């Protein structure tokens, strides 16, 4: 039989068209809690916050790190948790967290979701923006250790005990000074790390205006160190005197916040002058890497 006689009929398939996996650079955009979510994901060691679910009165707690870096679990007393700091992720962290949240709503005491669901088709599953009240802030509670992994009066054993010991030993002293604003004692250095909600361009202009005016610090013993990017937002960082306690910087941080808000508003009517533009160029070159 010649080639013409071997022609096949039209192909039929039940397969769904493949959805392109697109990286989401600002996964928490649209949530009022965006700065806090980024801080809890990136550098806050031990903290929890109750989530406000849309259309549901179920109780779920967001935690920085869960036992054995799990994506979600339900304690033996029935309290449900999802974790921010996990070892695997997809192209959209918000969808990973949304899938974990949907899982934990139906889980039973003792159930553990070891890793986020990153194998489902891209675009499948609800994101945090679909499941949370978008205008709700997070009431963050910091902890000195990870005892909150366990119900009161419960003792850890086995792998959980080992994970608890490792996690406790890695905690850096941290204090919350305001929304997305945290004092961190990192080894021999102390810092203020402040996740800001503004666009990077506007924030750099406002910081440049303060820098040119000599108003970018928190007071004596502080120095603007630079900034790093995290999940679509800019995080300015200040080096602080380690001899001063975190609460001693609270007033300075509040005053800096007021000056920064004023600088942001002034950009509507006053573009940067030559000195401020040079300051901005200097700030752009001071990018940091978190370790």
Briefly, what is this?
By secondary structure, this protein is α+β, with helices and mostly antiparallel strands. The protein has helices spanning 34-42, 93-105, 128-131, 158-169, 200-212, 250-266, 274-284; strands at residues 47-50, 60-63, 72-74, 80-83, 112-113, 141-142, 174-178, 181-186, 189-194, 222-230, 233-240.
Topology:
Layout: H1 34-42, E1 47-50, E2 60-63, E3 72-74, E4 80-83, H2 93-105, E5 112-113, H3 128-131, E6 141-142, H4 158-169, E7 174-178, E8 181-186, E9 189-194, H5 200-212, E10 222-230, E11 233-240, H6 250-266, H7 274-284
Parallel strand pairs: 2-4
Antiparallel strand pairs: 1-2, 1-6, 3-4, 3-5, 7-8, 8-9, 9-11, 10-11
Give short descriptive properties of this protein.
291 residues; alpha+beta; 27% helix; 7 helices; 6-stranded mixed sheet; 5-stranded antiparallel sheet
Structural overview:
- The protein has 291 residues and is of the alpha+beta class.
- Helices cover 27% and strands 18% of the residues.
- It contains seven helices and eleven strands.
- It has helices spanning 34-42, 93-105, 128-131, 158-169, 200-212, 250-266, 274-284; strands at 47-50, 60-63, 72-74, 80-83, 112-113, 141-142, 174-178, 181-186, 189-194, 222-230, 233-240.
- Strand 7 (174-178) and strand 8 (181-186) form a beta hairpin.
- The protein starts with 33 loop residues before the first helix and ends in a 7-residue tail after the last helix.
- The relative contact order is 0.13.
């Amino acid at each position: 039989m010649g080639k013409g006689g071997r022609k096949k009929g039209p192909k039929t398939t039940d397969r769904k068209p493949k959805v392109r996996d697109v990286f989401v650079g600002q996964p928490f955009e649209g949530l009022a809690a965006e700065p806090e979510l980024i801080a809890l994901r990136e550098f806050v060691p031990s903290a929890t916050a109750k989530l406000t679910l849309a259309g549901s009165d179920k109780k779920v707690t967001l935690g920085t790190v869960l036992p054995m870096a799990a994506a979600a679990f339900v304690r033996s007393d029935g309290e449900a948790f999802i974790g921010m700091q996990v070892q695997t992720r997809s192209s959209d962290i918000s969808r990973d967290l949304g899938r974990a949240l949907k899982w934990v709503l139906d889980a039973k005491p003792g159930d553990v979701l070891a890793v986020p669901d990153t194998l489902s088709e891209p675009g499948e599953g609800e994101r945090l923006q679909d499941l949370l009240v978008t205008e709700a802030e997070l009431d963050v509670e910091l902890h000195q250790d990870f005892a909150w992994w366990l119900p009161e009066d419960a003792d850890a054993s086995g792998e959980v005990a080992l994970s608890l010991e490792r996690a406790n030993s890695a905690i850096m002293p941290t204090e919350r000074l305001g929304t997305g604003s945290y004092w961190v004692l990192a080894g021999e250095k102390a810092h203020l790390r402040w996740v800001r909600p503004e666009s990077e361009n506007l924030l750099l202009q406002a910081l440049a205006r303060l820098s040119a005016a000599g108003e970018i610090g928190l007071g004596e013993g502080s120095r603007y160190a630079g900034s790093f990017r995290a999940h679509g937002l800019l995080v300015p960082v200040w080096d602080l005197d380690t001899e001063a306690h975190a609460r001693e910087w609270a007033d300075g941080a509040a005053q800096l916040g007021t000056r920064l808000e004023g600088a942001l508003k002034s950009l509507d009517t006053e573009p940067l002058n030559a000195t401020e533009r040079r300051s901005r160029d200097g700030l752009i070159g001071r990018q940091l890497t978190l370790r």
